């Protein structure tokens, strides 16, 4: 069953919602590999058309080690969101620990060319305890 959106943040009338799920079939705990998939919905509640240009992630593993990931768009796309529109995508995150977290921001461009940052909410990555 698909999880509902568990985390949300709103900046400049743009809401970012996140649902995250641990994927045991993609993980190999005995080799120190855990994998999560996350579904993001970006909702443009503003009255102007916006284009998502960049992303910045801050990924922290269970040992407190931080990785920063920057790039253009999301999963190869730089979507344009008209007022009232939403954009959904799915991506994944591997870690070498069974726990961690992600957070960050998207860089949008307004119609007048001005940049705007939209916060991605903090969300935990947590593998369930195994019975073995």
TrEMBL record:
This is Protein ApaG. The lineage of its organism: Bacteria, Pseudomonadati, Pseudomonadota, Alphaproteobacteria, Sphingomonadales. It comes from Parapontixanthobacter aurantiacus. It comes from the Bacteria. InterPro entries: ApaG-like, ApaG_domain, ApaG_sf, Uncharacterised_ApaG. It holds the Pfam family DUF525. Transmembrane segments: none annotated. PANTHER family: OS05G0170800 PROTEIN. HAMAP family: ApaG (MF_00791). Residues 8-132 form the ApaG domain.
């Amino acid at each position: 069953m698909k999880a509902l959106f568990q985390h949300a943040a709103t900046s400049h009338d743009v809401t970012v919602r996140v649902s995250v799920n641990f994927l045991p079939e993609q993980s190999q705990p005995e080799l120190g590999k855990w994998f999560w998939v996350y579904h993001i919905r970006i909702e443009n509640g503003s009255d102007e058309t916006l284009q998502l240009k960049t992303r910045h992630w801050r990924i922290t593993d269970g040992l407190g080690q931080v990785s920063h990931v920057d790039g253009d768009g999301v999963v190869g796309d730089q979507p344009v969101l008209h007022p009232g529109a939403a954009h959904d995508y799915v991506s994944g995150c591997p870690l070498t620990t069974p726990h961690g977290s992600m957070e960050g921001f998207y860089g949008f461009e307004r119609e007048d060319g001005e940049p705007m940052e939209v916060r991605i909410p903090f969300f935990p990555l947590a593998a369930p305890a195994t019975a073995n």
